[in-house]
Amino acid sequence: MSTPATGRLRTWLVQYRAVFFKEVRQTLQDRRIVFLLTVAPFVQLLLLGYAIDLDVDHVPTVVVDQDGSPESRQTVQALLADGTLERTGSVDSVAQANALLERGTVAVALVVPDGFARDLSRGTPTELQVILDGTDPTRSGIAASAVSRYLGERGLILARQRLAKATGGTRGLPSVEVRPRLLFNPRLSSAIYMVPGIAGMLLLIVTMLITAMGLAREQEVGTLEQVRVTPLPPLVLMLGKVMPYVIVGLVDVSLAITAGAWIFGVPLRGSMLLFYAFNVLFLLNTVGLGLLISTSSQTQQQAFIGAFVIVLPALLLSGTLTPIHAMPSWLQPITWINPLRFYLEGSRAILLKGAQMQDLWPQAVILMGSGVVILAAASLRFRKIVA
Predict the structure, then answer these.
(1) How much is the average pLDDT of 211-232?
(2) Does pTM surpass 0.85?
(3) Which domains does the chain have, with CATH numbers?
(4) Is the pLDDT of residue 172 over 60?
């Protein structure tokens, strides 16, 4: 027996299905949108996955060996052995090395002074100069660390040898051996860390931008005026318009993670069901933001600019490219209003560490709360437009 409530629900489902498929057909007819939703995210993942490399190695280095002894040549070879520094040439003077640094031809100059081997044999303090191009602080810092680490280890070995020689080999310097144990990313691969961040970035851009421009397009061409005279409830109309993009977002993130695991070796250690749950919570935020932007825009150009204004700060304040703890203390509290931050924390923990819901419930609660607030605000604005 059919009740009035059942009849209304059946009517809403029919109306929702009509709006849903109308939105799908309209989207598929625009080849640019189809490319943006399907091919572009995969291409961007490949480009960004290979381009964003936080590993610093093969730093171009010039050598100024003023000593010219076997000991100086051996020291230079040992400094270059681990691949952090890469020898690009040799010059005869420090002035020539400085000229190469000024032109940007090299980033490091190793200067071995005259008398290097003599001082080593005498056991007197020995100097080796390292000149760095500081325009890239990360690269110069890692290069300096590599040189300091090697020289520190070399100095300790020489000190042990001399002490053993002085004591007849019966005594040695006490030592502490450090054996680091790397969890979750033993190879310290940048791609393994970056791919989940790139997937979240693409999810934010694609779903928010397309949702924002979709409704703005209808306002611009005038089709929204036709919708206003139909008996469609605003909620049914809103759900029918945004659900296709939610599905597209889930498909895109599936392609991104599959490509990341296959091409870049990203591990999938956690529950994929939990991973997709985080994606749905994040999509509540991105689709809601897109809808909120579209209800405040009259043209697609305005919607695009509005989405761009949100995307750039969201990326910079999410931990995608730089750790949040490295940001200024006054800036870190602002990241708490950024849904992308908590999505990345959750997705990285699930994929790389195998985290469970009991480990990630704070991020899930924040994503759900912000999604509900954003969607509620967008829904109120949407009702005013279609009313």
Answers:
(1) 69
(2) no
(3) 20-52+189-386 (no CATH), 59-166 (3.40.1710.10)
(4) no
